Structures
1.
Amino acid sequence: MSSPTRKKAARKSPAERAAEISDAAHELALEQGLSAVTLRAVAARVDVAPALVAHYEPDMQALIASTFASIVAAELAEVDALVAGLPTPRERLAAMLATLLDGSRVDVTVIWVEAWAMGRRNEALAASVRDEMDAWQAMIRGVVEAGVASNEFETDDPAAAAWQLLGMIDGLNAQALVRWGDAADRGSLISHAVEGMLGLERGALAPPSVG
Amino acid sequence: MSSPTRKKAARKSPAERAAEISDAAHELALEQGLSAVTLRAVAARVDVAPALVAHYEPDMQALIASTFASIVAAELAEVDALVAGLPTPRERLAAMLATLLDGSRVDVTVIWVEAWAMGRRNEALAASVRDEMDAWQAMIRGVVEAGVASNEFETDDPAAAAWQLLGMIDGLNAQALVRWGDAADRGSLISHAVEGMLGLERGALAPPSVG
DNA sequence: CATCTTATTGATCGTATGATCAATAGTAGA
DNA sequence: TCTACTATTGATCATACGATCAATAAGATG
């Protein structure tokens, strides 16, 4: 327990303490959202005086931005690894949609939504948001381009299609944040939509669970 | 000018003053986002003491919620009126997509995004968000159902398709908030996606501007 | 004109935020 | 052991938020 009568934090190396602080920010963001990453909340979690956090992170807006970036980049790497193992672009795309829309990533969705909102008053965060959106779009674009190259997909503009896909995914996830109860058939419906976008026959992207 | 040396506000009828206050909240939200709707900011805009705003709106969270609701409901009415004049469901759907994705509604998009984020700490707002999402979904569902009835559209579940459409629109608009530069071909791409979703032939929803 | 109702206000409280700085105490090295 | 370095802290500042309340003054009513 971080007892209210904390005596004094053990002295640690700057590298270790800095890691503790950014880890705490990371966890705090996943548990309670980006807006919960405050000087005092991070300090309390590390069980350290607020001034120490300020010492290691002189700019909280920057800490929020880097926390956002690390969380989102980790998610991208995870999905990328999952998808990279699959043989065809069609399977990769289907798996990507299934994974990103299975509702198991509410915590990261909250962070995206908060980042969009907070980015309007935190320029460092806004820059991170742009960077991470670019990275996601690049990953999706890679799958689309591979599909076009193998004649599985059909589109004039893989880059634009990737943006479109990313927007659809983000929007549906944000929606699920509020309307988690409903939204039953999300999987098959977005599959049909993407089939239409990429010139696939109906059912080509059907999630395995539905068959 | 709201001079810093304001003497005293003219005495007005409660109805008039209440209207001024909610109007100020409304404008403030459209200009600077929902998070700019604070006790003091509203008071400054009406050129009145903060305590007066608190007198008329004892709960700021409620004022934020009602401000959100009125803005979003007005937008829905506007789009509804625009779409109602068109003869076929296909045209109505195409016009709806074109209007909602033409990038001319950044202010309202900001409000949606902030509402999703703030709703997590403002229960009244969260309820309003759910209500307004339901209202939007109902409107879209009406168009989809009409299209199914006239055999123009094909879907097993118009309600789910409407949720899907709403999510896609919201996501793409939120994306444009950050990435307004790019996203060139949004119109035709989402049209193809929706064609796939509703079993339409390619190009059936093409925006008139593209032909 | 006198009185009453009430719209309006100033002052103030409690909370939360980020930030700064001199003082303290643990630890490694001479 | 003694010293120098520095990780850590308490105290404090400035700002912003919502909320409350007694006091004031404007206008309606008689």
2.
Amino acid sequence: MSPFRPVTVADVARRAEVSKATAARVLGGYGPVSDEVKLRVQAAAKALDYRPNELARSMSTGKSGTIGIVVGDIENAFFGIAVRSISDTAHRHGFNVILANSGEEVEAEKAALKVLVGKRVDGLIVTPADNRNIAHLRDIVRSRRPLVLFDRPIDGLAVDMVATDDRDAAFAATMRLVEAGHRRLAYVTALNAEPPIFIGPEQLYTSSVKARIDGFLAACHATGIEEPERGICLAGGTATGQQRASVEQLLSAAEPPTAILASDSLVAFEIFKAMQARGLRIPEDLSLVSFYDAEWTSVTTPPISVIDQPVYDMGTQAAELLIARINGESPPARHCVLPTRFIERGSIGAPRRTMAAS
Amino acid sequence: MSPFRPVTVADVARRAEVSKATAARVLGGYGPVSDEVKLRVQAAAKALDYRPNELARSMSTGKSGTIGIVVGDIENAFFGIAVRSISDTAHRHGFNVILANSGEEVEAEKAALKVLVGKRVDGLIVTPADNRNIAHLRDIVRSRRPLVLFDRPIDGLAVDMVATDDRDAAFAATMRLVEAGHRRLAYVTALNAEPPIFIGPEQLYTSSVKARIDGFLAACHATGIEEPERGICLAGGTATGQQRASVEQLLSAAEPPTAILASDSLVAFEIFKAMQARGLRIPEDLSLVSFYDAEWTSVTTPPISVIDQPVYDMGTQAAELLIARINGESPPARHCVLPTRFIERGSIGAPRRTMAAS
DNA sequence: ATGTAGTGTGAGACCGGTCTCAATTCGGAG
DNA sequence: CTCCGAATTGAGACCGGTCTCACACTACAT
């Protein structure tokens, strides 16, 4: 009735009748050991079903063989694939992955980081929730622990980063809508802002959101659309019903937009559902374009035009950059911006009633 | 130019001019310490920016505060939500989560388990890929480490389990299709089998797959459908194109099925795409029902009828069961079977050409 | 004054590995 | 036959926490 104490090197050493040091050399595969002794130790290890304690190993080596990931929302397919990609790459290089979810809350992000650092991860990949509040990220950098930002750059933080050309993509997609004849455009993004109405870019604390809105506005300005800021809808976070309410409000406005660009596939999904519920047709009543080529966008009638982001590649890149640094490389901070691809499907048409500009 | 050695209790103790033991008591929040000393130590800790080393802590306490998850495929939304749910619940109880992906390969599953055990996780939640090859799971049980099986029960392994009523759900869905007039049914599942044609249930090494096929066949037999086994399509794993080819083959058969039950939303997606490519209409040409209420199933035209599985609840349940055991409870193995819900949408209709039975 | 709890503190063992360094053995050169 | 160096091996420190135990000191009853 032993309390099932796990087998240790000392146990193996005793059974193989060698010293703990020698057994450790065989089991850890480092020092020189004679073949005869090696076999004896291996036999003893097998007989006792020895399993090395990685914790103890990490303690003395200082390396944990683990990388930490902090994402905004694993439930979002975008992050789901990113996590998959990062862990595939990590495993390929012999690393494990600890996952934490921030729910897009900075406080949760801080807590997650604290835990991961406590576990002495060898490096971190983070999707920062708020680019105004980055003291905790600076701490990471100061402690010399490799860090890669994912999907969202942060100005003034000299650290590796992987993202997409958000501004250009939004610009191009908006131009495409304007070319189709639209003058009343909306950009809908998931963001908890105070106040919930768009006032200016200083309000946007998520860098990718800011870049996309920049692109949207730039395209509007370039084509002479007036007051495009009024079309920006900050639809709130992932909390229940919040986004739905914002979308409902947008669609039932006195002069609703004739085309919508959605910042992610979840918001686009809400828009699609709301339209369906109201009997609005795409693209006759409203044109729709979304960031991210989510599964569902290709099977609707009509399918939705999207800005495809190479998520899997982004994850791989991020992991590669991180692991290179963990392995000792220390070049200056690299910014890796991957191109997006516009996939035109059937969701863009001419606006219902053409309105002459001014 | 220090090599950035992290601050330890000893450092804090030295600065606060107390013994290492006393500093540890304050920092670890356990032993009795006078208020005056406590303040001094806390001040020193703050000044030095002390961060406890969880690894060292785990080593002496024997608890890591971490639970390990091994899922088949994180990219699958079903597992994505499960992971989200499990980590939410874990964090609520003060645990962290280490994630590993088996890609539905037993060998990868074994490796993942080895690593997680090496990291001394306090407990494990596993989606076993193969119920014939469970020696490694028995090892876990033998070592007294809490284990919960997720989504897939395994006979003869006395361990907690959370799953859905797969057999009943498949039975009911099949009955619904038969009631609509179908006699030529197909059940398509993601499974790498040797040979790739269904021969008998002994071939099915994933328990949920087996249960669902049992239910399908039982409903067919109960309604006098002949040779329903011929409708079972083992469409292969997630490897590229494999499933697509199987589905193509199924649809282009001489006498294609008039109704299909899909074992998961990924396979159903392949079927949907393949049908779309061939111009087949739902439900006029083919009725379709899928397991799991994936996002896309509700926005197609027509929307797809599904067997909704309470994934989030499953994850929460699994985590709760596990944590209870980690916290010392040790009741006999519990099997927690959650009910599914049939969501009827527009994808079921009468078969195109009614065929008289025999 | 002496006994007796009770409280706060320090010294040091311990967890299970890694790793340094000294000791031992053995072969071949001188 | 002796000496040197290479190859193995063992003893024990160390990583950074936790935790046991002994000790000092105070407070109060006897």
